[in-house]
């Protein structure tokens, strides 16, 4: 069902896992995880809009966004944070001895993941900051993913870079596995950044926990997103 011009996945996490696990053995497809920041960026970023259009699933990442979507008539069973979905898939990957290609995420965190999940074979590429503006660097990144077939391709690059790269990988028709556009989720799994306790998540306060943990990086961004999102919401409520 659509809201903010996004066709959201409306089922449960368990149903989603059942649907997407076969994709881990197939030609490349990818998942995006819309939240309020993404909705704000989609207003003016055509490449992000195009990347969203070719994603296999658009999953509500935010428990803050969930009641807003329900207010707009989208009957979602639950929010499925990208970090939670990534953790579940990593556990499955460890049990099944899968291969995972990681793009982004610092080398020390990938080393921690290798120690935590010895059953997984990791390939890792760390493009330079701002590489999305350099076509040669983008091509190199895409070539790396194509050259390292995997069950999961975790794009930990931040929005909109990770979504644009996912769409470019998809367009090659040469890559394998399921792509996850999940930002800093691997940092939580590696333990370098502490995720909010489950009870805080259940109260829809994970955003506040993250601000308290990283105020310099997140406070201004969240405030900016809130200011931009309110008029977008008002416009959609009136239509």
UniProtKB/TrEMBL annotation:
Keyword Glycosyltransferase part of the UniProt annotation: yes
* Matching Pfam families: Glyco_tran_WecG
Q: Name one GO molecular function term.
A: hexosyltransferase activity
Where does the chain cross the membrane?
Answer: none
InterPro entries on file: WecG_TagA_CpsF
Which keywords does this chain's UniProt record carry?
Glycosyltransferase, Transferase
Q: Is Glycosyltransferase one of the keywords UniProt gives this record?
A: yes
- Tell me the PANTHER family matching this sequence: PTHR34136, UDP-N-ACETYL-D-MANNOSAMINURONIC ACID TRANSFERASE
Q: What name has this protein been given in UniProt?
A: Glycosyltransferase
Provide the species name. Halopseudomonas pelagia
Lineage of origin: Bacteria, Pseudomonadati, Pseudomonadota, Gammaproteobacteria, Pseudomonadales
């Amino acid at each position: 069902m659509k809201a903010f011009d996004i066709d959201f996945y409306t089922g449960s996490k368990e149903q989603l896992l059942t649907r997407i696990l076969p994709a881990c053995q197939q030609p490349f497809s990818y998942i995006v995880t819309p939240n309020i920041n993404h909705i704000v960026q989609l207003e003016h970023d055509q490449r992000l809009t195009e990347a969203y259009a070719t994603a296999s699933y658009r999953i509500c990442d935010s428990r803050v966004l969930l009641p807003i979507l329900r207010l707009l008539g989208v009957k979602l069973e639950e929010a499925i944070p990208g970090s939670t979905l990534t953790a579940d898939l990593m556990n499955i990957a460890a049990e099944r001895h899968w291969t995972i290609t990681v793009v982004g995420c610092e080398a020390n965190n990938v080393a921690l993941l290798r120690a935590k999940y010895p059953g997984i074979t990791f390939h890792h590429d760390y493009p330079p900051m701002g590489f999305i503006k350099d076509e040669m660097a983008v091509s190199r990144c895409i070539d790396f993913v194509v050259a390292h077939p995997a069950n999961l391709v975790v794009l930990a690059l931040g929005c909109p870079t990770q979504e644009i790269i996912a769409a470019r990988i998809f367009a090659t028709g040469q890559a394998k596995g399921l792509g996850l556009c999940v930002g800093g989720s691997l940092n939580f799994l590696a333990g370098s950044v502490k995720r909010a306790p489950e009870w805080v998540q259940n109260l829809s306060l994970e955003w506040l926990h993250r601000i308290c943990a990283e105020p310099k990086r997140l406070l201004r961004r969240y405030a900016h997103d809130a200011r931009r999102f309110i008029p977008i919401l008002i416009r959609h409520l009136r239509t």
